[in-house]
Structure formats: structure tokens, C-alpha cells
Amino acid sequence: MVQSVMNAAILGASGYTGADMVRLALGHPRLRIAALGADSKAGRSIAETFPHLAFADLPVLQKPDEIDWSKIDVAFGCLPHGASEEVLSKLPEHVRVIDLSADFRLKDTATYAQWYGRKHASPHLLYGAVYGLTEWARELLPGARLVACPGCYPTATLLALKPLLAAGVVIPYDLIIDAKSGVSGAGRSLKEQNLFCEVGEGAHAYGVAAHRHAPEIEQELGGVAGQPVLVNFTPHLLPMNRGELVTCYAKLAPGRTAADARAALLARYEEEPFVHVAPEGLSPATRHVRGSNHCLINVYADRIPGRVIVIAAIDNLVKGSAGQALQNLNVTEGWDETLGLMQAPMFP
């Protein structure tokens, strides 16, 4: 029998991802927020931390080891990388884990150590985790105990490129990904480079040739291509709170056209509730998806013969994080996949 209501714990509830996780969970008819985890803000009410959530009757923030886990059915891990693994690996077996950090995304422990600067302490969990790009993981998600939600950049990039590689429309090398995100993607902790004067009225690249989402993208594209994939990935920070836009440049396979690429995207996503191929000529924009769990994609013939440009827009805190986490939970539980996620984008 399907349980009518699940008790949820949201860890890292004092961060931006945690706040959106709370916001979305409040609108989910089968979730009850039973615990909110935080470290530095433990003991505070949610109203003190996020006044926009003061209307809700929610538990006080507490340290994860103070939570009564015997009463929790599902934990959403909105903790920083490293901290997430440490906390989630100690949870009782009956607790389903939907992790939003990078700690369980990479399947190779050596790759994880190389990019995150630490040895993975829970490889037994790493190997069993389901990589939760929902639209491509439905067969693996039902009943999964641990789901590793993709990063925001990989979410938009993979939704744009996987159908083209799967259909053999583009070749699996010479892939260029130009990505841009709002400042919320960098988290809520105090960092000089994220101060208003540092990010306002300007834009800059970061993690150039060394961003941690690159091996995650390569892992998943390699899986569908059937061979190792190396991408040129460069992220940029834009002076906006939320939103993400990726522009991907790919080389067409011999004899294939931009029309074939569009057909592959339409065929793959025509029945999807949250991924949409835009009308021809409409360029996806972050304002088209803001506050929603939707992804908008379009494809163009490049002026360079034999190449295509694929553009995807998501809200980094929703489809790129908390919304996708709820979508994954819905599938693991056998619920309607859209439950609690049908908010229309906010515009203007």
C-alpha cells in the first residue's frame, strides 16, 4: 500500500537550495516537513532565517544528529559537498535519501577524489546510488534507497545533448558548453567574490577548464555515447538571483542536419511534463522558466557548416535542484511525477 503522507527531513535548510526545498515541499500533498536540519543556525526558527517562509508552521532548525530519525521517512540532503556524505551515510536504512550534493553523483572514486580533493568515505553507497536525471532514470528510480540528483549545469546540459547522442545525430567529441548561472548557484555562505559589488553590473567566467561539473557531464554523456567523452565546459556567473542558460555547440554526424536534431529532441521529449522543445526560432531564456520545474530547449543550425547550437534554460534552484529532487521522490514512490511541481513560471 502506498503511504499517504511521508515525514520529511530537509538538511541544509538554511541555504538557498534548502529554502526552495522547503518552499516546494510545503505544496506537496504527500509530504509533511517533520524536521529541518542546520548547523550554524540551529535553534532558530525558519522565520528568522527565511522571513518569506514565516507563514508556515515549521519545526525549529536543529543539528542533524539531534533529529529523531525513527520518525523520518525521507531525507533531502541540501548540504555542501563532503558534509552531505558524512551525514547521510549515518542515516538508518529505512530513510530514503534524495541527495542534492555532488557526493554520490560520480561513480568512480578516483575521479571523485581528483575533483573534490578528498577520498570518498562511503563507496558502498556511491556504487548503489541512482543518478537522478529523472527523464533518463525512470526505470532505476522506483524503490531506490539513495538518489543522487544531478548538478544544475549537468541537468540543463544533459537534457539538451543526450537525445542527440542517443540518436546518433551529433558526434561525441568536439562538444563545447558555454554555461551561465545566477548567483544563488554559489550558495549562501559569505564569500567575497559573491558580494553585490563583485557580481553586480558585470559577468565573469569561473572554474575555467577546472569546474567540478565537467566530469559529471562527461560520465553521463559517455554512458549514452558508449565511449569516453571529453567536453569543453566553461561556466559564467551573471548578476541575477536564479536561472541558468547553457549554449551547447556540437558537430553533426555525417549526413545529419539541424532538422534531424530537432526531430530527435521532439521525439524524446514530446510526452514529458517538464521538458519542452520551443517553437522554431524562439530562443530559450531564464525568464521563461523562472520559479518552475520546466526546462526549455531549442536547436539551431550553426552558420559553420556541419554544426548545431543547442540552448537550454532552467531555474537552477528548481529543475536544477529542489524541484528535480521532488520529481525523483515522486517516481521512487510511484506517485504522479508532477505532484507538487506544477507551478507555472513567474513572469515578469
User: Termini distance?
Assistant: 43 Å
String of helices and strands: EHEHEEHEHHEEHEHEHEEHEEEH
| Average pLDDT taken over every residue | 94
Q: What fold name goes in the CATH topology slot of the largest domain?
A: Dihydrodipicolinate Reductase, domain 2
Summarize the amount of helix as a percent range.
25-40%
User: Can you identify the CATH class of the largest domain?
Assistant: Alpha Beta
> What number of domains?
2
The secondary-structure class comes to alpha/beta
Q: What CATH architecture label of the largest domain applies?
A: 2-Layer Sandwich
Shape: globular
Q: Show unreliable segments.
A: none
Q: Please, what is the CATH homologous superfamily of the largest domain?
A: Dihydrodipicolinate Reductase, domain 2
Query: How many β-strands, per DSSP?
Result: 14
Q: What characterizes the major β-sheet?
A: 7 strands, parallel
Order of strands, main sheet, comes to 3-2-1-4-5-7-6
Strand proportion? 15-25%
Number of contiguous helices? 10
Rg measurement, Å: 20 Å
What does this structure look like?
The chain has 348 residues and is an alpha/beta fold. It folds into two domains: 6-128, NAD(P)-binding Rossmann-like Domain (Rossmann fold); 153-316, Dihydrodipicolinate Reductase, domain 2 (2-Layer Sandwich). It has helices spanning 16-26, 46-49, 83-88, 109-116, 123-128, 152-166, 196-199, 213-225, 258-269, 318-333; strands at residues 6-11, 31-37, 61-62, 74-77, 96-99, 130-131, 146-148, 175-181, 204-205, 231-237, 244-251, 275-277, 295-301, 307-314. Strands 3-2-1-4-5-7-6 form a seven-stranded parallel beta sheet, covered by helices on one side. Helix 2 links the parallel strand 2 and strand 3 (61-62). Helix 1 (16-26) packs across helix 10 (318-333) and helix 6 packs parallel to helix 8. The longest helix has 16 residues, at 318-333. It is globular. The N and C termini lie far apart (43 Å). The mean pLDDT is 94.
